[in-house]
Design goal:
This protein is of the alpha/beta class and about 375 residues long. It is built from twelve helices and 13 strands. It folds into two domains: about 5-65, Orthogonal Bundle (DNA polymerase, domain 1); about 70-355, Alpha-Beta Barrel (TIM Barrel), CATH 3.20.20. The radius of gyration is 22 Å and the shape is elongated.
Length: about 375
């Protein structure tokens, strides 16, 4: 049996070409694409049978040739603070997505790769070897899974639970540029998933040659995983700095298309005890980004098994934040969310790497037996 094509993740032009190849008449294909686009991205249709305004013979053709497959949900965990983490599987590999509910927004943290090549020393994902890039359908599939689980369709309805998307999950988005670009175009399409550009943030550890291109071709908000203000420190904790040092990275930020006081660049700064958290570091940070429309997210280090660092003392984080605030920068200290389910910043890593399948089955069986009465 011929493998069916997933319509999720195809651009309008790609969907049009796929329909024509499947036998749809050229004169009606543009209308069909608009109908499918609305069903898939506005209403979150999970099957073709639910598309009741389409003719039965057309639905039968769609069923034979195409699919609307989401990633398989391996596990869904809900933290004590309401954070949700999904371990997803497709193409034989696993990756994670995290939903963080807040009083004024709901943010979905999306992965772009299975594993990561960057090996940032404070990041759990960095201990997982790079496996492959995620496709547009797999990137978008994370949003579909979240909206399915949260009952968050249609995408145009008021009071949506997923209001923001951040490309801050597993992987480096700018090393999967074309697929991330294709997926985010649909996320930011007013006739599709309908999130505005200012509600979509792409985070990079500093792939300098791709930053301007991201601004020109994607146009989302930008976040930089900075974490150090001196090359000798950043070379160790964010090794890509050896290739693209701070001077080049900061210049790329200054040149980022569309950066303004209304669309500030976010600098992420994980607080590592005795490594990057001195008041001298705080003053150097302010000097480093001077003149860039920016805000600074101070992130208490989230521990994971075998981590080589400790979180800065809370008193030191507050002193660091005070220096930054006095310089006129918003510097919220990010409240750790989802730590109890390893869903906090820097903690994501596929369970497929941590546990072999047979071990996971044995663990689940042990847990089931433990819950049995008597």
């Amino acid at each position: 049996m011929t493998e069916r094509t997933n319509l999720i993740g195809l651009s309008p032009a790609e969907m049009k070409a796929a329909l024509i190849e499947a036998g749809v008449e050229t004169k009606s294909v543009s209308m069909r694409v608009k109908q499918l686009w609305n069903w898939i991205y506005v209403h979150g249709a999970r099957d073709f049978a639910s598309m009741t305004n389409l003719a039965k013979d057309f639905r039968a053709l769609l069923e034979a040739k195409f699919t609307l497959a989401r990633p398989e949900i391996v596990t869904e965990q809900i933290s004590n603070d309401g954070t949700r983490k999904w371990l997803l599987r497709s193409g034989g590999q696993e990756y994670e997505a995290v939903y963080i509910p807040e009083s004024d927004r709901g943010t979905l943290c999306v992965s772009s790769q299975v594993g990561c090549t960057l090996n940032c020393r404070f990041c759990h994902t960095g201990t997982q070897k790079m496996v492959r890039n995620l496709t547009p359908s797999e990137i978008l599939g994370q949003l579909f899974v979240a909206r399915d689980s949260l009952g968050d369709w249609p995408s145009t309805a008021p009071g949506r639970k997923v209001t923001n998307v951040v490309m801050m999950g597993m992987g480096e988005p700018l090393y999967n540029f074309d697929n991330v670009k294709a997926a985010l175009a649909i996320v930011m399409d007013g006739d599709g998933l309908a999130l505005s550009k200012r509600r979509v943030t792409l985070s990079t550890a500093g792939v300098v040659p791709m930053i301007k291109r991201a601004g020109d071709e994607i146009g989302s908000s930008l976040a930089i995983s900075l974490h150090a203000v001196r090359d000798e420190i950043r070379d160790v904790i964010v090794p890509i700095n050896k290739k693209y040092p701070l001077k080049e990275l900061i210049q790329a930020c200054r040149d980022y298309p569309g950066a303004s006081n209304a669309r500030r660049i976010t600098f992420e700064y994980v607080m590592l005890k005795g490594v990057n958290d001195s008041l001298a570091d705080a003053r150097a940070l302010v000097k480093l980004i001077a003149g860039i429309p920016a805000k600074i997210n101070l992130i208490p280090f989230n521990p994971w098994p075998g981590a080589p660092y400790e979180c800065s003392d809370w008193e030191q984080i507050e002193k660091f934040a005070e220096v930054v605030n006095r310089a006129g920068y918003a510097s919220p200290v990010r409240t750790p969310r989802g730590r109890d389910i390893m869903a906090a910043c820097g903690q994501l890593k596929s369970d497929s790497v941590k546990l072999k399948a047979k071990d996971r089955i044995a663990e689940m069986e042990a847990s089931r037996l433990a819950q049995m009465p008597g």
